[in-house]
Amino acid sequence: MEQIRHFGFLVKDVSRLWVRHFEQRAAQLGMSLTHCKVLVYLSRNEGATQARLAELSDTDPMTLVRVLDRMERDGWIERRADPTDRRAYRLYLEPASDPVLAEIMRIGDKVRSEALVGLSATEREQMMSMLERVRGNLVALLPAGDTTSSHEARPGTRNGKPEHPRRARRAAPRATPSRRKKASR
Predict the structure, then answer these.
(1) pLDDT tens figures, 145-183
(2) Which domain holds residue 116?
(3) Are 139 and 149 in contact (CB under 8 A)?
(4) 70: nearest Cα among 30, 123, 19, 128
């Protein structure tokens, strides 16, 4: 049990337990944490490409395609052709996603308050401040150009800096034949 007191083990275990508790609550929506993360990150980055959303939400690109297909069928998102790259699609929320997003936020608030019960407001602020500093230390240790360092970046940026247009186009996913048919309708 001594090893649980080590930083990495403790952070991983807290994360695992938080995800488990969140997913138990999100089951009422028929959604996993991955589904919720994708929808929330898209709400903060409308117009992102699928590749960028996969990066922001830390979701495997193939998994993301399945998640987005479901959300498109449910009427929560819309894929629009990228005006600068005919192979890519930009992602936008539909109004039908609003109540789902509101419920995800409500669940997140509930799980957070349950996880932090017994901590004063000052202790919560101190904990967040310290974790942000640790995160900053770890981000600083990443190799230059590692785009996984900032989940807060906006579409068209790389580590918070504008992305070179040709590089952005090269990284964009190609449209599948079924999408090409849909786009040509």
Answers:
(1) 775 545 444 333 333 433 333 333 333 333 333 433 444
(2) 2-184
(3) yes
(4) 30
10 Å Cβ neighbour count for 122?
8
Indicate the length of the chain as a whole number: 185
- Is the sign of the CA dihedral 13, 127, 18, 48 positive or negative? negative
pLDDT tens by residue, 14-39: 999 999 999 999 999 999 999 999 99
Domain count, the chain: 1
Q: Please say whether the beta carbons of 100 and 38 come within 8 A.
A: no
CA distance 102 to 99: 5
**Which amino acid belongs to residue 40?**
V
Q: What is the CATH number of the domain that holds 156?
A: 1.10.10.10
